[in-house]
Input
Amino acid sequence: MYEQISHSLLNDILVELKKKNKPQKNMQFFYTRLGANFYAIYSLFNTLYGDHPDFKKHMLQLVETLMRQYSSRSGHLKKIDLEREKDHNWFLNQKWVGMALYCDGYADNLKDMLPRLSYLQELGVNLVHIMPICDCPEGKSDGGYAVRNFCKIDSRFGTFEDFDKLVTNLKKRDMLLTLDVVVNHTSDQHEWAVKAREGDKAYQDYYFIFDDRSIPDIYEESMPEVFPETAPGNFTWDESMGKWVMTVFNNYQWDLNYRNPSVFIEMLNIILFWANRGADILRLDAVAFLWKKMGSSCQNEREAHLILQLMKDCCQVTAPGVIFIAEAIVAPTEIIKYFGEDAINAKECEIAYNATFMALLWDAVATKKTILLNKGIHDIPQKLERATWLNYVRCHDDIGWGFSDADIVTAGYEPLSHRRFLVDYFTGNYEGSLAAGLAFGRNSETGDARISGSLASLAGLERALKNNDPDAISMAIKTILLLHGMILSFGGIPMLYYGDAIGTLNDDSYLNDESKNNDSRWVHRPKMDWEKAMQRTQPGTVEYSIFNAVKKMISIRKEIPAFADRNNRELLSVDNPHLFVFSRFDQINSSSRVLIIGNFDAEPQFLNLSPLQRMGFFQYDSIKNLCNGESMPAINENLMIPARSFYWLQA
Ligand code: GLC
Output
């Protein structure tokens, strides 16, 4: 859009930059994109920082950052940018299947990732999320999310040389790379924090630092605690500085102050740094927390969204092929906003964690019913066209029961006791439950807690194996496959978690490490057991059963255009409370509709297909089970779905 004020400011900036820098070649695409986005960039920057006395100076620095990073972007990446501009919905394709892993957990380090890539390809994974690799203090690292230096690779993981080789190799294999940018906070040992501690006012302004408790106490009135057991409160007393610092997560993670435009520009520079290193997708960590406002929960504030929009608009100028994942584990009505509101295309993050679906799936596992799952999914607002979910069953974090009390009531349960039931169920303290999870962040007043534990252990495999109970083992495997069957067909990018395709159990070894033993999330961050992984070739083993079934689902998913995410899902309400039923359709070829049915009960269940047929959702003479290619017997139109199983059916 052409607008006089911003246009004349841009002219001034460009004249200034021309004076400062040598003339640059091949800047045509940069200038076209800058021109197209500048009004939006200016407006957002002005809304956030317009009152700042150095507003113009910061605008200049912002444009200079975009230009400098564009100049150092490689020709190869610029070519990918152009390709993705043409095929701008590239990430909605059903061909993408991801896996999240630690490079020192899945392999030994970045170098050792190379010989381990073939396992991913064997499974069908073509998008790899390597968890944080930036330099962190040993011990106080929060699994890599307490960064000491954003532009340095932690020596435990390797060097930039190892990293570059890995990136080149991934590109050859047509595999995408996702990396984290921890935008909300730094380690207390980051250079900025060190300078702040030394009394540098400019760097103290990078954080929220207070002389006494008066302001922190006001903040605390409305701020919830993220880690109530291990890091209670949201402020930490820094002895050497003699001041209080805002630390929403662990006491060694200092929250960045985005009211300061310099912080925004620094972090944008870091985003572009990793974009230029070859990341295809950047996972922006803890984005709900980016803006702090007294009297609020300091989550999901409007300004947090403006910051993300500004990051997006800026990234589109320098590295338009790179897309963002929002890690916002918040209420469903809030998550959806991280795509950007009032838009068609995502104007904040193109991808968002579908934490709602994940938690609801686990609720269905525990209750063996899908009432809450159906209600929760039904209520998720329609998302934008050019935006997609990251669907997952497990990740490196705990499982929180993010659905609302009101939904729990609608589903016929009492909120407090239902939440307690879920905790009891997954910690194995409920009759009949074989789950072996651990409570995380327990609230001593309500008994509510989040849950840690590996997928297999939560699904009952660990205890079934201990009890040497073949039926229970089989039920646990079915549960694992049912959950994968859901995330692979729901619509979005399925993100598997390393170890889950071979049924990795809880790993207690973290208890021997003092820096980890107060954080039970480490129970599901194991070292990959490659000997166990070899069992995937041995028929009759647990590893074989899980790995080969998941592999098959992935390969089928890739062949079904209806599984691409184009807002082409219909949730179907059926009168069996154990079933989760939805259909996926291909907008071009409507006959290729797929009916997905998940039975969360431990007994077989029946579905009468005729109402679906009458309503036109699913026309059939015969039905094909896509997972084995066979035709299905639909006795009297009543289809039997075995216990803890799912079907992907095509008419
Ligand atoms: C994100 C990460 C989590 C970390 C937190 C603080 O939620 O997923 O592991 O503890 O941010 O950085």
